[in-house]
Amino acid sequence: MRNMKKKIFDIISALLVISILAFIFIQLSPGDPAENYLRASHLPITDELLKQKREELGLNSPLIIQYLKWLKNVLLGNFGYSFLRKEPAIYLTFKSLYATFQLTIFSTFLIILISLPIGILSAIKTGTWIDKIVISITTIFVSMPVFWLGFSLILLFSVKLNWLPVSGRGGFLNFILPSITLSVPFIGQYIEFIKKSILENIQNNLLENAVLRGLKKRYIIFNYLLKGAWIPILSGFSFTFVSILTGSILVEEIFSWPGIGFLFTKAIQAGDVPLIQACIMVFGMLFIIATHFMNGILKYLDPRIKGGKNNG
């Protein structure tokens, strides 16, 4: 119960800090929110309308009063209406989040599908020519800039070959290019991570006994190599999922994927204050809650973590 209260306090404290940063970000941004509203609404920017809109938005109050009023509305789930779309900012944010979540699931599946078998193979064949080829490929994957990869894939598969759609979120084919672009750097990282986790278990005496007993390689891999390595591997994949979910802004912009990252960039370009603040808060909330959730699962699954907790 004590730990649960501490976790709740940590989450609330972190969200409070994020709310302050979101508010400060708007204050430090160039441009006048009232002017941005008028421009987004296609209204003439006159002194009279600017004065009226500043009063409506509460921009004439001291900053601390502005923040407290905004925080009160946020706690009630009211982030205001988007300047551009004239809809509740929080509704637009969660609507876009669904598209980002779909892309995250697809990309995470791709990372696991490719990095897990290649990582295992690289560990088993460590020091051989196969391992050297894998190391070279992973180095290229990790070093590859996301924006360069995205545009290169579009040029090859969409423009030259006309096999895949350039942008948007339609059917299955629309997922392929953005998912590959988002996954490639993580695939490179996790092939090496899985290899390292498995190699740490190869010196295990139980493994040596299994080899001497003449057990099949497949049995040894899944019952000895992976048994000791699956907790750090699972931990890595779980936090990768969180990172992709909250860090897909650039990929969504490249492929015009209608997720929360794409929405955020459009809101910044238009100076859409309610939408910017809603996106920042949702990003923060997702990262904090998902991280605590993943930590909780790993503590439950890993006896060493639970043991350490009980001893403390």
TrEMBL record:
Record localization: Cell membrane
A Pfam family matched in the record: BPD_transp_1_N
GO cellular component, one term: plasma membrane
Regions crossing the membrane: 7-28, 101-121, 133-159, 171-191, 224-251, 275-298
GO MF term list: transmembrane transporter activity
Bilayer topology annotation: Multi-pass membrane protein
Entry's family note: Belongs to the binding-protein-dependent transport system permease family.
Protein name: ABC transporter permease
Organism annotation: Fusobacterium nucleatum subsp. nucleatum (strain ATCC 25586 / DSM 15643 / BCRC 10681 / CIP 101130 / JCM 8532 / KCTC 2640 / LMG 13131 / VPI 4355)
